[in-house]
């Protein structure tokens, strides 16, 4: 297959970014479009600002849908539906976020400003964007008889999260970031779905496509199919190819699988919580629970990204999961039965603040490092 290969050398810093995109949708449609877009951007526009702006479009869409459909009931029969203009905004914002995510790297290469900070900022925000993307898309179908259950959506969220971390697991082991096909397909599809929903209304999605197969079933199949038919087989093939070519960075199976330990523990803890919850927390507060899980996942993933960037060993356990273990044990034991919702809100706030603090701290350290390095380059040689 043809490929788009990104190689952004920074010989002065001894760092380079190497990624491969073999998705036909990206190569033949999106990349030519992004190449046209980046040409009209001013060269003074920082790539990281483009990245942040794209991410904020997703956060704004999530916030807008939270206002009109906090509990995911609005698209169900007999409920007040989300206004059409909101779906138009969601479609435009989602496509803008997708476009800016595709343009930021091109702007960095165009202005010769590719850095490890840019890679962490881009991919770190991408990992956090997963939960905003999935939760917003869920509002199209919602819950109830005409939609998808909140428990099913929880597992679909994990399918998306696992698909994301697979790419970074590949890079941790091969040194190359193979961009997943499912990302481009899902972004374009859901942008179109938002606009169609604005035109025809959510009632259209109630009707079966063929026989007893509904649009909500296609929604589920699209997410699961992207993982098991496209992303997972390609990831395993790329790692096997590196093994066959003797280019794997980690020879033992244990070291190669280290990046999965914390995400798996997070999955186990969050699944135990919803399965053994005394108050059925996932039914009462699905949006907050998704946000908590997605943010904790992003925190774990960012640490993996830092490890693969710095060629350091991935830690098997993220410290954030230690207090979460205590919280889950207290909840499922019934100790906090009367205040479980309050506990969820407090823990979600702690996770959000911890993740933001981690991101700000890492960005500050990287910025300080490169400022010191740049100063050392300008300093006259005493010899």
From TrEMBL:
Location relative to the cell: Endoplasmic reticulum membrane
EC number assigned by the record: 2.7.8.1
Pathway of action: Lipid metabolism; Phospholipid metabolism; phosphatidylethanolamine biosynthesis; phosphatidylethanolamine from ethanolamine: step 3/3
The reaction(s) this protein catalyses: CDP-ethanolamine + a 1,2-diacyl-sn-glycerol = a 1,2-diacyl-sn-glycero-3-phosphoethanolamine + CMP + H(+); 1-O-alkyl-2-acyl-sn-glycerol + CDP-ethanolamine = a 1-O-alkyl-2-acyl-sn-glycero-3-phosphoethanolamine + CMP + H(+)
Top EC class, one word: transferase
Cellular component per GO, a single term: endoplasmic reticulum membrane
Pfam families from the UniProt entry: CDP-OH_P_transf (PF01066)
Gene Ontology biological-process entries: phosphatidylethanolamine biosynthetic process
Keyword Cell cycle listed: no
Name this polypeptide is given: Ethanolaminephosphotransferase 1
Organism of origin: Cyprinus carpio (Common carp)
């Amino acid at each position: 297959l043809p490929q788009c290969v990104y190689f952004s050398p920074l010989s002065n810093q001894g760092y380079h970014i190497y990624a491969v995109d073999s998705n036909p949708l990206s190569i033949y449609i999106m990349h030519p479009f992004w190449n046209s877009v980046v040409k009209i951007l001013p060269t003074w526009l920082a790539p990281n600002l483009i990245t942040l702006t794209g991410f904020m479009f997703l956060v704004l869409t999530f916030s807008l849908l939270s206002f009109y459909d906090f509990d995911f009931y609005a698209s169900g029969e007999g409920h007040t539906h989300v206004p059409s203009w909101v779906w138009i905004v969601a479609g435009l914002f989602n496509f803008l976020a997708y476009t800016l995510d595709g343009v930021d790297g091109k702007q960095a290469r165009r202005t010769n400003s590719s850095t490890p900070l840019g890679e962490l900022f881009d991919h770190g925000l991408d990992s956090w964007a997963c939960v905003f993307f999935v939760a917003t898309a869920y509002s199209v179908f919602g819950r109830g008889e005409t939609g998808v259950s909140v428990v099913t959506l929880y597992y679909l969220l994990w399918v998306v999260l696992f698909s994301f971390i697979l790419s970074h697991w590949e890079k941790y082991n091969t040194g190359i970031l193979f961009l997943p096909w499912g990302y481009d397909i899902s972004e374009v599809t859901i942008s179109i779905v938002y606009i169609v929903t604005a035109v025809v209304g959510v009632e259209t999605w109630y009707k079966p496509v063929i026989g007893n197969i509904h649009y909500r079933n296609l929604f589920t199949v699209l997410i699961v199919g992207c993982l098991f038919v496209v992303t997972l087989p390609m990831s395993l093939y790329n790692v096997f190819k590196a093994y066959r070519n003797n280019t794997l960075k980690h020879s033992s199976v244990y070291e190669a699988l280290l990046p999965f330990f914390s995400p798996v523990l997070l999955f186990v803890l969050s699944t135990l919580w919803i399965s053994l919850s005394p108050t059925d927390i996932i039914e009462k507060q699905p949006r907050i629970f998704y946000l908590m899980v997605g943010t904790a996942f992003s925190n774990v993933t960012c640490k993996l990204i830092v490890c693969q960037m710095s060629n350091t060993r991935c830690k098997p356990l993220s410290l954030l999961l230690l207090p979460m273990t205590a919280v889950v044990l207290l909840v499922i034991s019934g100790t906090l039965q009367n205040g479980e919702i309050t506990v969820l809100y407090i823990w979600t706030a702690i996770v959000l603040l911890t993740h933001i603090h981690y991101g700000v701290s890492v960005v500050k350290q990287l910025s300080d490092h490169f400022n010191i390095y740049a100063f050392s380059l300008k300093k006259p040689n005493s010899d």
